[in-house]
């Protein structure tokens, strides 16, 4: 599913997209793909977390693209969290992006 979402975001031109493989626990996990972990003292499912830094003008479009392309209607589809970014500085040259 993440490939479909990433492809749609790429076609849109979403900037600064990061995909991170994660282990999720909680009520959003896919019960059919649970794994047991002694290190995490419980069960988890593997997921992909997408982080996108974009302009205020792009937020609604990117949110809609994610929801449209990730929705299966089943538990574990995930959530979209939108939060402000106070500052983003390129490490390479120290300039604000």
Structural topology:
Elements: H1 2-12, E1 17-24, E2 35-37, E3 42-52, H2 59-70
Search tags:
97 residues, alpha+beta, Alpha-Beta Plaits
Record field, number of beta strands: 3
Oligomerization: single chain
**Main beta-sheet annotation:** 3 strands, antiparallel
Can you tell me the CATH architecture?
2-Layer Sandwich
Radius of gyration: 16 Å
Q: What is the general shape? A: globular
Distance between the termini: 30 Å
* Percent range for β-strand residues: 15-25%
Return residue spans where pLDDT drops below 50 for at least 5 consecutive residues. none
Count of folded domains: 1
- Counted by DSSP, the helix tally is 2
Spatial strand arrangement across the major sheet: 1-3-2
Structural classification: alpha+beta
CATH fold name: Alpha-Beta Plaits
Order of helices and strands: HEEEH
Q: If you had to describe this structure to a student in words, what would you say it looks like?
A:
This protein has 97 residues and is α+β, with helices and mostly antiparallel strands. The protein has a single domain (2-70), classed as Alpha-Beta Plaits (2-Layer Sandwich). It has helices at residues 2-12, 59-70, and strands spanning 17-24, 35-37, 42-52. Strands 1-3-2 form a three-stranded antiparallel β-sheet, with no helix packed on it. A hairpin with a 4-residue loop joins strand 2 (35-37) and strand 3. The two termini are 30 Å apart. The relative contact order is 0.22. The mean pLDDT is 85.
């Amino acid at each position: 599913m993440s490939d479909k979402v990433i492809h749609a975001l790429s076609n849109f031109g979403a900037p600064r997209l990061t995909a991170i493989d994660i282990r999720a626990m909680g009520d959003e996990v896919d019960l059919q793909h649970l794994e047991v972990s002694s290190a995490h003292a419980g069960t988890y499912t593997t997921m992909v977390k997408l982080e996108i830094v974009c302009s205020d003008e792009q937020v609604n479009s990117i949110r809609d693209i994610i929801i449209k392309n990730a929705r299966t209607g089943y538990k574990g589809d995930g959530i979209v969290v939108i939060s402000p970014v106070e500052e983003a500085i390129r490490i390479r040259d120290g300039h604000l992006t």
